[in-house]
Amino acid sequence: MRNWRAKFLLVLVGLSSLSAFSVGTDFTARQSENSAEPTASKCDQNVPIVYLTINPALVTKGLFSRGSRQLQMNWSLCGHLTNSADSIRLYNTNPAKMRPIELDSQALEKVFPNIVGRHATKVQVPEFEFGDRDLTSNASDPKTQRMHLKLPLQDSVLTERAFGATYLRESLSSLMLSEVALPGTHNSGAYSQYTDFLSQVVRKKFLIAQEESIFNQLVLGIRYLDLRVGYYPESPEKFFLNHDKIRIMPLKTIFDQVTRFMAATNEILVLDFHRFPVGFNAEAHQQLVEMIKAQPSWSTLALPESTLGTNITLGEMWAGGHRLFIAYEDEVVENGQHLLWENVIHLWANTAHIFQLKDYLSKRFALDVSFLQGRVLFTANAFLTPQVNDLVSGLQSPGLRDLAEKVSNAGLDKWFSTIWRSAFTIVSTDFFMGNRMIKLCTEVNLERAAAARRSSLVRRQTSSIEQEARYNDYVVKSSLFKSVPDWIVVRYVKTPSGLTPQRVRIVSQVEPN
């Protein structure tokens, strides 16, 4: 990684009993430890939160000048009221070690906040690229071994070492793949660093959805990749990552980056071959499948078809060494390709309007998700899509960067951390460094893992009740709905009026051992 060493602290000063509430963003090679205990929504705990992101919009100085990325301060003060003395400050040194007289003068930025808000700072974030050395760790030290589904803290927006403690593997092993929260990117292969305004308008405004390479995306915590592949038989490479009809880069470039990452970590990753917009026929599909199988170690890492389906637990995936879930959107999956799974379902609003996006996802989460859960993987496409008239308007219409900023500013982080917190699994976004989804997925996974452990305890208790009921030879187990294995354990006693239930225990979605 290019040499850029800076440490930023976002500090909230003056709220009620809090003299200083800080969340750090560490740009050094250190990864702060994260408790394996579950954490509810910060607003549920009535705790204010502050965090840093990278603003998707860029600051440019001319048609041919390179744009600069800026840190953005974000906050949600929940039920806390502010007064004129409350402030949020950005530091590049620890303010706890400063003298009181230095607190104002050493602040890079100072904001007097409202309840919820954001502020684009003047601090520029340079382009960077992680290398294999950034993924190494001391395997002899259990506290610094390679992480196991430990999504890097997005409070650490950039970090050279996104890996740390192994204890999250133990915490998350009971989660099923179908219920784990995974941060993802939309059109993952449509990435490019910003060059200049003219290039952005002419070619990249509606094509580029990310600015980090696949390797960077994975190091920073992305665990779901949305891939669209075009087939060009006249080209030496033949297979390219596309954005719709336009090729972006050779598919092999993406495969190599995924292989490097999987070899250096013990992570679980979902690859979704979602669309094939150019040149595909049965022969092209067969060639692509053979290319997938030929990738180093992929045949070993890929999760084979299982009777458990997506209800396989992360622990079972780790134990079997199958950390790569490959979904493929084509009937080829029905032709004996046991390493390819059914397509990931995309909840896509296909709109350029915020209110329509929120309304669409709210309805889908309310109506469809209960049906989808446990059957297939599905992703909430939390981004806006330019429409035909936008493409025709060109210069006058917002591009993907502008739309990503619009979604973030409209409350994307709040929607998923509150109203959709219990419903979402995979979330796909554009310019993912502009939101807090990686950190949120970490929090939600710990909560769900804790719930799974409680469910396991109930399962053991229910099994004991069932054994006791069998002693009297009267046990009723029934499924209320074919799709939901609700188990009812009833103990009956004989009375003059017949059989009378003495004890009833209903455990939703838990089958006694």
From TrEMBL:
Alphabetized UniProt keyword annotations: Signal
GO molecular function per UniProt: phosphoric diester hydrolase activity
Presence of keyword Signal: yes
Coiled coil: none
Signal peptide boundaries: 1-24
GO BP, one annotated term: lipid metabolic process
Protein name per its UniProtKB record: PI-PLC X domain-containing protein 1
Taxonomic classification: Eukaryota, Metazoa, Ecdysozoa, Arthropoda, Crustacea
